[in-house]
Write a structure and sequence with these properties.
Blueprint (H helix, E strand, L loop, with lengths): L4 H12 L3 H10 L10 E6 L2 E7 L4 E6 L6 H16 L3 E6 H6 L1 H12 L12
Parallel strand pairs: 3-4
Antiparallel strand pairs: 1-2, 2-3
Length: 126
């Protein structure tokens, strides 16, 4: 499937304008710092732009703010999640407040989905 140029432009704009919560999580995921896995941010998958993606593990991480509580956005998120799951991805969703209040717990959940037993001594260890 060819990526629409509009999506590539939008993903670049989103990378430049990350939210504070995305920045906080990206600090831990960038440059293969998290157990050696490569994450991409604001990455195009089909017709969607996802916040973070580890393509190697087919893992997508979405950081959601309050607007995702609105019914219309819940429906859009469900449709989006169904598409991504059908494409073979596992989707983890975290609220902004989880990043603020329990970043270590968020990182542990991500770690658990990457590898059941991460090797000690690897870069980016929690």
């Amino acid at each position: 499937m060819k990526i629409k140029p509009k999506l590539l432009i939008k993903s670049k704009e989103l990378r430049k304008a990350q939210t504070p919560w995305e920045n906080k999580l990206w600090y831990h995921l960038r440059a293969k710092n998290f157990y050696g896995y490569r994450f991409r941010r604001q990455f195009v998958v089909g017709p969607y732009i996802v916040d973070f993606c580890c393509f190697e593990k087919k893992l997508i991480i979405e950081i959601d703010g309050g607007r995702h509580n609105k019914q219309t956005n819940k429906i859009k998120d469900l449709k989006r999640s169904e598409y991504l799951a059908e494409s073979g991805f596992k989707i983890l969703r975290f609220w902004n407040s989880e990043i603020d209040e329990n970043l270590e717990g968020v990182l542990q959940v991500i770690s658990n989905h990457l590898s059941p037993d991460p090797s000690p001594g690897r870069r980016g260890e929690i």
